Amino acid sequence: MPHEIGFVDNTGGTLAHYKMLAKIKDFASANGWTVLRYDDVSANRELILKGVGLSGTEEIFVGFRTYQDSSADYYNLVAAGFTGYVAGNTFDTQPGVLLSGVPAHNNRIDYWLTLNGQRIALAMKVGTPVYESAYVGKFLPYARPSQYPYPVIAAGMLTGVPATRFSDTSHSIPYKGARANMRMRFNDGTWRQPECYPWNNVYVAGATTQQRDTGGQYPLNAVVLSDASGIYGELDGVRHISGFNNAVENTLVIDGKTWVVIQDVGRNGFNDYYALRMD
Prior knowledge:
With about 280 residues, this protein is mostly beta strands. It is built from 2 helices and 19 strands. Strand 17 and strand 18 (about 255-265) form a beta hairpin. The longest helix is centred in the first third of the chain and has 14 residues, at about 15-30. The relative contact order is 0.14.
């Protein structure tokens, strides 16, 4: 599956976050995802997609929409996970909906967009600049399909869809330990907050501990999802990487795959970075 790196801006009179939504739609529909809804007229524009998974026989429902307020100067996206699609329902009342806001911009957005049949992952550079991230769709479960038939994630930068600008200093990447903006769907139909290794391990990614490169080679740590009941699986194409002697937007190639380094908003500590695989 492919990836796309580029930028959108507000030339031509269309705001950049609207163009970002259109980019996701065009890229996903060109690479195996079915567009179930695309509203490019309403103030809050909407995109709902269905993927077929890595097997080609699944039904995975995800979506993105916009929300904005020119008076408060925020222009955001929403990353969403669903369990189905009902044409007559609003975006926010689709079956099994879980929403997470992602601060964006009305001006230029640089983006890294990657997908496969089961998930879509996105990073954006906006504003001052800061870096914003999202992941929707399936993760890689440590279970058979009969045990865990719909292991999906809905993860953005915010808990719900608050009126939050990219300049907010409290929001953070969803993968960083145990955060309410990272939700995993369980078999009982609830969305719950997992912990993410290695950020939940003080010996690997603690405040005073860090990994580093060896001869310029950086280890990539799987982002493993767990809670008090057990270990469930890992994210697909997202890895923890050390910030030691590293920098945002660096790239590395492992087994023929290119990974790009993304930071947590504007933070630049040792454990404020992750690597995103360019499929």
